[in-house]
Structure formats: structure tokens, C-alpha cells
Amino acid sequence: MEWFEDETLWADFSDVLFSAERAEEAEARVASSPLLRVPAGAAVLDLGCGPGTYAVPLARRGAAVTGVDLSAALLDRAAVAASAAGVEIRLVRADMREFVEPDRFDLVISMYTSFGLFADHDQNMRVLRNVRASLAPGGRLMIDLYGKEILARDGGQPKIIDVEGGTLIVRGTVLDEWTRFRDDFVLVQGDRARRGHVVHNLYSAVELKAMLGEAGFADIECFGGFDAEPFDNHARRLIVRGVRTLGDA
Ligand SMILES: C[S@@+](CC[C@H](N)C(=O)[O-])C[C@H]1O[C@@H](n2cnc3c(N)ncnc32)[C@H](O)[C@@H]1O
């Protein structure tokens, strides 16, 4: 079983991975980021939407949001969050390697390192091609990742984090000569310790831009944060965008 198919991971760690602070951060970004500005009624696909971290605030701003995720547990959380916020979101349980709805979306977002999960490069390319097919002509893809340059600069040191009722220990390991990254978690609450891990590909800006180019996207650009900062030595995220140009098949 691949790590992302393991529902116990989300059951054990979703409260700490998808904390109230992250939900507030997403709400603030959706309110202020020029990269997340969408006209009311725009059709938005959140690929790997998790518990609705971005889907809910985007719906609150009037977007018609579809959230796709493989985890039933996280989709349940997204449904609860949408209902608490008084918005409707279309939630679809699907594998992003299979999900295609031709010409449907004005914007596709992939947030918080939800892209590059598959060890096989062709499967990640397949996700990009599915996205391009699902975009309406002129529509845009935006991917937000923990990029390779940022990891190299910030060091990926082990972290000990206070969480509700306990402590979370996170240790990152670079794998396969900087092509993959594994985060191991240990959550200690009272006498109970639970382990989990995630693994994803590590992309530099140049590598990710080349993949979007290969998948047929145009006007590919790169940012270092949600205020559309340049991707330079101060970058905090690797954000890459590309457009499905008008008229391409
Ligand atoms: C790091 S989480 C990010 C969630 C959300 N985007 C956020 O910002 O909070 C990655 C998400 O990708 C989902 N995911 C993993 N593999 C998937 C797949 N093959 N198809 C669809 N979703 C998948 C996970 O279930 C999880 O919700």
C-alpha cells in the first residue's frame, strides 16, 4: 500500500497536519493573495483538497469549488467544514491520476505539496495532462510546493512541536540524491505514541517548470510566496503557474 492510501495516517495525524492555524492561514491567503483571486462563480478544482483547507475559503468568496481527494476521512472533514461555513462544495473521491473532467475548470489548485506524490515520473506527468484536459481554454493551474531550493537552504532540521495534548516530532530525510523527500512523524499524547510518514518528490523551480512545459502549459511562471514574490533566495514556497492556452486541443 502507498502511504497516501493509508487512512490511518489521516485518522491519526489530520488534527496536527491540518490544524486550525493552517485553516486560518489559508483563509487569510485566499483573502489577500493575488495568486488566489478568483471572480465569483469561477469553476475551481482543488486537487488533493484534504479537509477543505483552501476549498472552503474559496467557496466563501463565491467560487464554484470541486474538491477531489483519495481519502474518504479527509473528504468527510471537508464536508463538515463546508457545512459549518455555510457553503456548498462538490466533493469527489477520486485518484488524481484518473480524475479528468474535460474543459470544465477556470482554475486548478494543488496546495501544500499535493503534487509530485508518485515515485514514477510518468504518473506525475499524467496528473499534469489530466489537469490540462480538465481546464477550460484560458484556464490556469497553480501548484504550491515545498521546493528543493527551499529545503536545501532551510536545512530540514528535526522539529519538536507542541500540539494539543502532546508533542509532535517531525524528521525529514532527503532520498535518492535529492529527488524524493520523506517526513517521519511521531505523535506522543499521554502514554500513546503513533508513527506516520509521507513521501513526495522534490522539484526545483526549473524542473517543475519543465514538467508543465512538457504537459503543454503556456505562460509558465514561478513565485516564492502568496504575495507573488519572486522565487529568489528569500522564497518561502515554490509556486508554479501555467495556462491552458486558448484554442489548444
Ligand atoms: C499534504 S495534503 C494537502 C491537503 C490540502 N491541499 C491542504 O492544503 O491542506 C495532500 C492531500 O493529497 C491527497 N492525495 C494523496 N494522494 C492522492 C491521490 N492519488 N489522488 C487524490 N488525492 C490524493 C491526500 O489525501 C491529502 O489530502
From TrEMBL:
It is an enzyme of class 2 (transferase). Keywords: Methyltransferase, S-adenosyl-L-methionine, Transferase. Its EC number is 2.1.-.-. GO terms for molecular function: methyltransferase activity. The keyword Acetylation does not apply. One of its GO terms (biological process) is methylation. Residues 44-139 form the Methyltransferase domain. It comes from the Bacteria. This is Class I SAM-dependent methyltransferase.
